[in-house]
């Protein structure tokens, strides 16, 4: 069976807050799946429910077809980094991993392997309490990889990483997926997932908003947008907006136009004697595609009402 995470009609309520509200999705093998939504959308809660760290009020979450709590050797089935700073500060990095390996029946050799893999080999004897946030993230990732699991979950993994670290983690996630693993990574920033995710699960207020391939999402968002290069940006904006288009400034001499066909735009600009040098299909960013996706979901970003 291919490695997967399956979430089915999952529900979790904390007093008056419904954190996860009937959520269903599948994370497939061989892909990086981005798990996105604004702060408080329910991403971390969903991940905790998948890992059996919390009990759902309804529905179920399965890892490789079984609930986490019924897995006999969980670290060899799923590795996760939810809160990288949750470390024993006095324990040395290597000892932290050795203890985990020992208590999970994993060979000692894996400890050196994963320390090497995350770039912490030279810091193996340092105490975790002296680690920067970025090093803590790397140690958390080493722990997640220890059991060589086919399923991996990362909650906001770029937090605290410097630009080199961000590139490193992107490449790591891509290579883990290329090895056939199922990788779920949460973020509230779309830009972080632009070059990483193959698939996207978007949620808002605990509910599913979209379950889509990134390529499809970008193609749809790019389809009706045309980029126009003109030295007379303001005039072009006026002419095209008057004809009913939505015009967005994209650079000193570039506007992105939505709602008009290319030949209509050339005609309008020529008639108004507004010169332009180039007209081409706009390649939407993941951020733009995400805004399209969530437009209309009016309550999406609003905080839940306090009933008191
Ligand atoms: N242990 C808890 N007790 C009470 N409320 C909680 C608890 N954990 C989460 N919540 C609430 O559940 C909702 C979902 O929170 P969650 O942390 O899952 O969102 P998130 O999408 O991970 O947000 P972020 O991007 O900020 O990490 C929020 O309203 C949060 O306040």
From TrEMBL:
Residues 5-230 form the ABC transporter domain. SMART domains: AAA. SUPFAM superfamilies: P-loop containing nucleoside triphosphate hydrolases. The keyword Flavoprotein does not apply. The keyword DNA-binding does not apply. Keywords: ATP-binding, Nucleotide-binding, Transport. PANTHER family: ABC TRANSPORTER, ATP-BINDING PROTEIN (PTHR43335:SF4). Belongs to the ABC transporter superfamily. This is ATP-binding cassette domain-containing protein. It comes from Actinoplanes aureus.
């Amino acid at each position: 069976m291919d490695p997967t995470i399956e979430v089915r009609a999952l529900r979790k309520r904390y007093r008056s807050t419904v954190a996860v509200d009937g959520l269903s999705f599948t994370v497939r093998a061989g892909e990086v799946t981005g798990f996105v939504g604004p702060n408080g959308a329910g991403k971390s809660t969903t991940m905790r429910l998948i890992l059996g760290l919390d009990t759902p009020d309804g529905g179920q979450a399965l890892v490789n077809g079984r609930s986490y709590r019924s897995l006999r050797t969980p670290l060899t089935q799923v590795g996760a980094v939810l809160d990288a700073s949750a470390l024993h500060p006095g324990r040395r990095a290597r000892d932290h991993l050795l203890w985990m390996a020992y208590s999970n029946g994993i060979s000692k050799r894996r400890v050196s392997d994963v320390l090497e893999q995350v770039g912490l080999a030279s810091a193996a004897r340092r105490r975790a309490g002296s680690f920067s946030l970025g090093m803590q993230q790397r140690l958390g990732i080493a722990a997640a990889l220890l059991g060589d699991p086919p399923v991996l979950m990362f909650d906001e993994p770029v937090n605290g990483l410097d630009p080199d670290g961000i590139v490193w983690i992107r490449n790591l996630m891509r290579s883990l997926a290329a090895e056939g693993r199922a990788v779920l990574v949460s973020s509230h920033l779309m830009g972080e997932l632009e070059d990483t995710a193959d698939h996207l699960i978007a949620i808002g207020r605990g509910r599913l908003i979209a379950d889509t391939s990134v390529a499809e999402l970008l193609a749809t968002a790019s389809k009706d947008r045309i980029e126009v290069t003109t030295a007379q940006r303001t005039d072009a904006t006026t002419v095209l907006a008057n004809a009913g288009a939505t015009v967005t400034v994209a650079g000193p001499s570039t506007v992105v136009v939505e709602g008009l066909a290319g030949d209509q735009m050339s005609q309008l600009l020529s008639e108004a004697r507004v010169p332009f040098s180039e007209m081409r299909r706009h390649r939407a960013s993941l951020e733009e595609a995400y805004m399209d996706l969530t437009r209309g979901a009016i309550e999406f970003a609003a905080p839940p009402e306090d009933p008191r």
